[in-house]
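Backbone Fold Data
Goal — fold tokens
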Amino acid sequence: MPHSAASGLGWNAAGQAIRAIAQFILGAVLARLLGPDAFGVVAVAWMTVSFCRLIDPGMGSTLVRLVDPSPHDIRFACTMQLAVSSVLAVVCAVAAGPIAGALGDEAAAPHLRWMALLLPLFAISQIGNALLELRMDFRTIQLANLVPYLVGYLAVGIPLALAGAGAWTLVVAALIQTALTTTWLYLATRHPIAPRVRHPRARAMLTFGAHTSGVSLAGFLGTILDQIAVSRTGTATDLGHYNRAGALLSAPTLALGNALGNWLYPMLVRMDARAKRRAFVAAATGLMVVAGVPFAMLAGASATSVAVVYGPGWQACAAIATPLALAMPGWLLAMLASPLLWSCNAASSDHLRQWIVTALLAAAMVAAVIAGAGPVSIAWVAMAAVWLRALLLLDAARRVSGWRWRRLASSLSPAVLFAVAAFGCARWLEQLTQGWHWPAVAILAVLVACGCLLMVLSVWVTLRMGVAPEAARVLTGWTKRTAQH
């Protein structure tokens, strides 16, 4: 019997939250131990590996879309994933020098050669992850990601940083984490891995996978083009500041978006059109209620937040963090729209809109490099691109599922209004306390208290509008159908 939908959401949310907290704490500790230069060097290698990771056949999402994949489907998917990722790993290792030089830091070449080993590990882990998502077994997925992360970055990374390993600390930690996660996911599913090149459903699987992979690639470029622009117009230290400002915000964003999106996608593929509409509106509203006020507070009080998390040597991050924090709710909405489009067989529509925005952002980043724009200006351009992407994807979701803008706007309006109030409150309090000579931690505590009050009010107003009962009906109906299936 498949795992309960409610239990799956609980495990997914809890696992993502714990991992986000762990990343937040360990990231702050490593930032203090290693400094901006080490993160700037590894950021170049990570950008390359992350880009190559997205050039794959997209077989993980394809297996979920099949609902009940056969062993032959799994073998074909595994073969495609490993073949493409192995080729890319060899290319990265051989061309590490020119790639690092093109990105503005030739010192990153040795790190890139070793991090290329991550690509085949990532590829095989996607198969096990997809099969566990189909079972709604998010408990195993979260444990397979959390425990190896703690081993890699806490048990190994911190001692290496204290021993003076520098940027290699992050490389070794990433390799250990990914190897352990891949092994765990495979042992949990024991899926067939024998090669299979010819398959009756090969064309359909590769077509759908190409669209989802294209979506992921376009989305990734949207998150990395600004870092490339900073690497071309500034120093490694500037890139380190930009990278850490983004990491401070992207970790909770990815945790929240993945927790809901990864749980929602295997549900949506089995839902009828009406249930999909209700589930999407309820999920989008829930995301904004949870994320709107916290990110608005971070944007309004970025100087205090950076001082507490990273220390006084990172104050250049503060001005960068403001626009990036304002972009995070839009990023979450875009992450939520893609599963709905894929479940409606509209991955091609998602693909097209993603690349339109990415092309516009690329043009803007080229202009920024030519003009010699600083990291703060680049961050504001990136924020505008995120919200444009969100609006285009929401419009595509509206077209395929049939919900109305008025319905979504009505559901989101309390969360948006309280987020605006939170930004203004945080900015006012931060300016007010500048002359008080309070410790940054004390100021942050006051800001958190105000944010919690506004968030409670936002939740209360949203509940009064009846969104929560609608979400509960969707979840209850799905759980019953899953159990019967």
About this structure: Confidence is low (pLDDT under 50) at residues 481-485.
